[in-house]
């Protein structure tokens, strides 16, 4: 017996699929062609919910008839209410306007649906993962065939997974016993991180039961990089308190200012302490593909693991994270489980390409495909040239804002992140923080530019992240003018109170 259901068959009609795709493609084409300066149209969630609900069918008994106009309206709402990542006004966060071709491949992936944790479920994605790992490892420098790479849905998950592998290496009994070292009388697990480490690392420590009290904070220098000389002392002091620092985490591109910790020196510090060195390169590992910028990660070949978000500086759709391990067997060390429905008792040539035993996720998107396709079609230079332009633009922006007497620049940029404050003479210390927050919100509310903010030493700063090669120094000057206009207005209002 076959299921004869006309409305159901219509939903799967390949011709309808083509028409729907054409509708979406036409709308996206005009979206990409619009180079006007715009940031975010911030919408009241209640208003947006109402608009979204108005697009929902009221038919609940049978499959609703397809309405092409409604599809166009959904796409229009989706595109319009997003941060305008393809506009030169977008300078705010670490995800990018993707290379459009990456979106095309993602779209194919969504239709053919090949989840990539196991070879049999995603053959090409599994092979593409291996190829991309080899390609990118040329810039890391580990021994071919001896290292491993798994994809994870985001840098946060990669950091957690790497810390888990590190913890299991230092405390092999915990996975089975489920207890911390301290409870059996030995030293208690701890990690050492910079002041500016991303919150996903300290969150991962919490998830692993390390606990905030056992996070050793390593001091940073004026450029906000970990001071390797002081790291030794801090780790020794922690060990004297009965802790065992099993992992030192260096950031290659910190989230607040894009600073690069000294990986080379920290690798020596970690080795002396018998600790794992994890490099959180979620933001900055992509600089490895540039001949000019690779030196920022000097010593990366000495790390034990590396988080690399391709959805940041490789300009592909989120999420797409690559977690590299210097020694392939450590990747399996993160998880020690058996599950007859997926893990084969008799491993064969295909099993070697499975990633499920090295990964928290079971079903996950074949996220490598957009990255591999761009790499296959355009090669390394696409990424290197865009990254070099963005870093260059950031230096130019720094010069622009440093020359303005009513602005202050608390750091020199190392990558594509720049922080600064609007602070004309006469603004007292206690007002600086709040002034930046107000400016940031008003810039966002204005809808022309999208920027972010971050606290540096407890005081808010305005933060731009250049992710769009269509943004120029001129656009940045316009942003500076807008900030000055908003800031001056806020100060006038305050003095008039
Ligand atoms: C340095 C760093 N690590 C980790 C993360 C988390 O990555 P994800 O957002 O992909 O989970 C970020 C995100 O901004 C980051 O900047």
UniProtKB/TrEMBL annotation:
UniProt xrefs under InterPro entries: PyrdxlP-dep_de-COase, PyrdxlP-dep_Trfase, PyrdxlP-dep_Trfase_major
Positions of transmembrane segments: none
Cofactor entry: pyridoxal 5'-phosphate
An example Gene Ontology molecular-function term: transaminase activity
Keywords in alphabetical order: Aminotransferase, Decarboxylase, Lyase, Pyridoxal phosphate, Transferase
One Pfam family cited in the UniProt record for this chain: Pyridoxal_deC
Similarity comment: Belongs to the group II decarboxylase family.
Protein name in the entry: Aminotransferase class V-fold PLP-dependent enzyme
């Amino acid at each position: 017996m076959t299921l004869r259901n006309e409305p159901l068959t219509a939903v799967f009609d390949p011709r309808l699929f083509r028409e729907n795709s054409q509708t979406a493609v036409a709308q996206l084409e005009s979206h990409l062609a619009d180079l006007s300066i715009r940031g975010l149209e911030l919408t009241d969630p209640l208003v947006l919910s109402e608009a979204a609900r108005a697009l929902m069918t009221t038919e609940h008994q049978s499959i609703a008839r397809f309405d092409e106009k409604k599809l166009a309206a959904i796409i229009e709402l989706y595109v319009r209410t997003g941060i305008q990542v393809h506009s030169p006004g977008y300078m705010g966060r670490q995800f990018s306007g993707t290379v459009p071709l990456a979106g095309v491949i993602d779209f194919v992936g969504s239709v053919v649906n090949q989840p990539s944790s196991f070879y049999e479920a995603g053959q090409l994605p599994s092979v593409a993962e291996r190829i991309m790992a080899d390609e990118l490892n040329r810039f890391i420098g580990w021994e071919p065939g001896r290292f491993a790479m798994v994809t994870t849905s985001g840098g946060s998950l990669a950091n957690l997974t790497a810390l888990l592998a590190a913890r299991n290496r230092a405390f092999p009994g915990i996975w089975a016993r489920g207890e911390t070292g301290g409870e059996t009388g030995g030293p208690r697990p701890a990690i050492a991180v910079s002041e500016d480490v991303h919150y996903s690392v300290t969150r991962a420590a919490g998830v692993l039961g390390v606990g905030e009290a056992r996070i050793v904070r390593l001091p940073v220098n004026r450029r906000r990089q970990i001071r390797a000389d002081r790291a030794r002392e801090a780790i020794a002091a922690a060990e004297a308190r009965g802790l065992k620092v099993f992992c030192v985490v260096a950031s290659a591109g910190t989230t607040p200012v894009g600073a690069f910790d000294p990986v080379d020196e920290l690798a020596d510090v970690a080795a002396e302490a018998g600790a794992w060195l994890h490099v959180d390169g979620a933001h900055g590992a992509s600089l490895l593909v540039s001949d000019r910028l690779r030196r920022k990660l000097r010593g990366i070949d000495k790390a034990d693991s590396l988080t690399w978000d391709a959805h940041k500086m490789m300009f592909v759709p989120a999420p797409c994270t690559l977690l590299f391990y210097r020694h392939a067997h450590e990747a399996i060390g993160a998880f020690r489980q058996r599950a007859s429905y997926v893990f084969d008792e008799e491993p064969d040539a295909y099993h070697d390409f499975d990633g499920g035993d090295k990964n928290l996720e079971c079903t996950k998107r074949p996220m490598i495909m957009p990255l591999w396709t761009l790499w296959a079609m355009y090669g390394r230079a696409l990424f290197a040239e865009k990254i070099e332009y963005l870093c260059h633009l950031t230096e130019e922006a720094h010069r622009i804002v440093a020359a303005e007497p009513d602005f202050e620049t608390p750091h020199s940029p190392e990558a594509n992140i720049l922080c600064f404050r609007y602070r004309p003479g006469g603004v007292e210390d206690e007002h600086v923080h709040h002034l930046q927050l107000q400016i940031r919100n008003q810039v966002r509310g204005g809808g022309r530019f999208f920027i972010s903010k971050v606290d540096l030493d407890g005081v808010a700063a305005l933060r731009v992240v250049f992710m769009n090669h269509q943004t120029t120094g001129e656009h940045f000057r316009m942003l500076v003018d807008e900030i000055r206009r908003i800031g001056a207005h806020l100060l006038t209002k305050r003095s008039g109170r």
